[in-house]
Amino acid sequence: MEFGGYVGSTMSAAYYSLKNVIRNFYAFDSFCGLIGTQENEKEIFGDGQYSCNEKSYYHNLAFADVDTSRIHSVAGDFLALNENAKSIKEKNGMEYCAIAHIDCDIFLPAYECLKFLEPLLKQGSFLLMDDYNAMYCDNNAGLRKALRLFSAKYPAFQFELHQFYGPHQASFIVHKIAKKYFFRR
Ligand SMILES: C[S@@+](CC[C@H](N)C(=O)[O-])C[C@H]1O[C@@H](n2cnc3c(N)ncnc32)[C@H](O)[C@@H]1O
């Protein structure tokens, strides 16, 4: 599942890396660019940036010879994603997520994407975050803030750093701790 599809570059790469082990690929995007940039993110990012419509997105995938019947788009603003989460999951038969790639750059939508993923992430799922180290690695902005707040809200999850696979990118192994191991307070 990719949150932030833009022109389809990373989806094409994911398709060619994983097409023999993953059946369905999901592309979530507004298809009209960033929405929800906070004041402290505006030095680097801005609403409307990275806009690519859905038709062009699929055109690019087809040009890269991707089997587009396996790429399912979910169009809409991530800020409203959790209002429609149940119907999106049911409609697309989403039961779990093996690999999530969050590439929407900024805090608010990234946080909503993590909340959407909460019931879908399993022990051993992979979480990739582009721009994790963007904005000077500020823990109060962007993807760092999203993961920090999500971890505080959902203590059943632990995110083990797997690697920094680029100057801004980080991947994590998801650990989901069984509720029976929680201490009572
Ligand atoms: C940097 S681009 C993604 C690049 C893409 N992975 C690629 O390789 O081409 C960021 C994407 O996040 C999407 N995005 C940002 N905020 C969003 C929001 N609130 N709702 C939906 N999509 C959003 C933008 O539309 C854009 O396509």
How would you characterize the overall build of this protein?
Helix 4 (about 105-115) packs parallel to helix 6 (about 140-155). The chain has helices at about 10-20, 55-65, 85-90, 105-115, 135, 140-155, and strands at about 1-5, 25-30, 70-75, 95-100, 120-130, 155-165, 170-175. The mean pLDDT is about 95. It is globular. A seven-stranded mixed beta sheet has the order 3-2-1-4-5-7-6, covered by helices on one side. The longest helix has 12 residues, at about 140-155. Strand 4, helix 4 and strand 5 form a beta-alpha-beta unit. With about 180 residues, it is α/β, with parallel strands linked by helices. It has one domain (about 1-180): Rossmann fold. The site of S-adenosylmethionine (SAM) has 22 residues, from helix 1.
Pick out its properties:
single chain, 185 residues, alpha/beta, Rossmann fold, 30% helix, 22% strand, globular, binds S-adenosylmethionine
Short description:
Helices cover 30% and strands 22% of the residues. It is of the alpha/beta class.
Write the layout of secondary structure elements.
Layout: E1 2-3, H1 9-18, E2 25-29, H2 54-63, E3 71-75, H3 85-92, E4 97-102, H4 107-117, E5 121-129, H5 134-137, H6 142-153, E6 157-163, E7 170-176
Parallel strand pairs: 1-2, 1-4, 2-3, 4-5
Antiparallel strand pairs: 5-7, 6-7
